[in-house]
Amino acid sequence: MHFLENIRLALSSVRSNILRAVLTLLIIAFGIMSLVGILTAIDSAIYSLNENFSSVGANTLTIKPTGEGVRRRRGGNVQKIGEPISYRQAIEFKERFNFPGVVSISMNCTGSATVKYENEETNPNVIIVAADENFLQAKAFGLELGRNFTASEARQGNNVAIIGWDIVKLLFNGQPERALGRQILAGKLRLTVIGILETKGSSMSQSEDRRVLLPLLTGKRFYGSQRTNYELLIDVRDPSRIDDAISEATGLMRVIRKRKASEDNDFEIATSEGLINIIKDNTVTLRLSAVLIGLITLVGAAIGLMNIMLVSVTERTKEIGIRKAVGAKKSTILTQFLTEAVVICLLGGLLGIFLGVLIGNLVTYFLGGSFLVPVNWIGLSILFCTLVGLISGIYPALKASQLDPIESLRYE
């Protein structure tokens, strides 16, 4: 019997037992939905973060302290880590780092500021960052209008600001030319707008466009303390020399931080690729859990499908006898019933894939991620459905193929 004919007969059988087939199909669909939905949400989140980190540049290094306080090692030893990078250390590193590239210094002032202009104001969720003249290049930020800080403005701490696109929309009706030269109140500072950042969009519920940049010394003067950490960004000119840059930066930072030869680093140097790899590693368990949940549901669906196929064999005993009487071989009957089981599984799988991709991307959308069609997980789901169909259909198909044609024709 031709393959397409088997599929036609399988669909006809599904229609004739529509209620039982739909119930089994839904069990399969929910199993695949849970599998694809969770994995889609994870992949979409990672893809969004990857885009965000990649915008900084694959040749950008970030130097941060390893943490704060203390961390307990195995064996009960306690190690002090993570003293903040001070302003003096950051400036010294910038002046002494001779590797081909650009060094930027920045500090996070606050993430809950309100920005006002005349009678308009934003919600208290604006990020204020103090940075030097190299920050825009190191972070791959472009200017829509206006200019960057000068080196003297960053050193002297002038009251000027570069604002994000969301703030332009909220305070200046989306007209950047209106914003230039105006004075705004950002948190507790009155600042003159000298530049408008190009739009960057959102990443995982945080808008990259809802920010205000200040000159570094301005931020230090009004938001700094003895515990303030100054983040160092290094934009390496030649990406092929990233490892050399890391070695150079590590040696210089150890000297500046006065680390002895016997002491471990109390800072870390990371690339955007390294951060993404850490995130992927931390989601391995979650991925495996999603696959396990889907497989458990599919086991239940397989049992239900096997039951349906056994009932179908019993109900169609006479039909099987007639087919054998007119010359159908055992392999033909076997193939027919296996095809029916696989078709039911694949129909449920396709419905589950559609629902899973939809739900997974809805979750990611509300978290600020990007839409993604997980081709790999869709392929895996189709493979699972095919295997479930073959496993649950093999016993009923064998039973049908081994029926005696004479006894089958007598069956009522």
Write up this protein.
With 412 residues, the chain is of the alpha+beta class. It folds into 2 domains: 3-52 and 282-410, no CATH class; 84-265, no CATH class. It has 15 helices and 16 strands. The strands form 3 sheets. Strands 1, 4, 5, 6, 7, 8, 9, 10, 11, 14, 15 and 16 form a 12-stranded mixed beta sheet that branches. A two-stranded antiparallel ribbon has the order 2-3. The protein has a two-stranded antiparallel ribbon with strand order 12-13. 37% of the residues are buried.
Determine Rg (CA atoms, Å).
32 Å
Which overall shape is indicated by the principal axes computed on the Cα atoms? Answer: elongated
Helical residue percent band: 55-70%
Low-confidence stretches: 68-79
- Total DSSP E strands: 16
Overall number of structural domains: 2
Strand content: 15-25%
Main sheet specs: 12 strands, mixed
Given helix and strand content, the structural type is: alpha+beta
Q: Give the number of helices.
A: 15
Give a short synopsis of this structure:
By secondary structure, the chain is α+β, with helices and mostly antiparallel strands. It has helices at 3-16, 18-56, 87-96, 135-138, 151-156, 165-172, 176-179, 216-223, 242-256, 272-282, 284-315, 317-325, 330-366, 375-401, 405-410, and strands at 60-65, 70-72, 78-80, 101-113, 115-117, 120-121, 126-131, 143-146, 160-163, 183-186, 189-197, 202-203, 206-207, 211-215, 231-236, 267-271. It is elongated, with a radius of gyration of 32 Å.
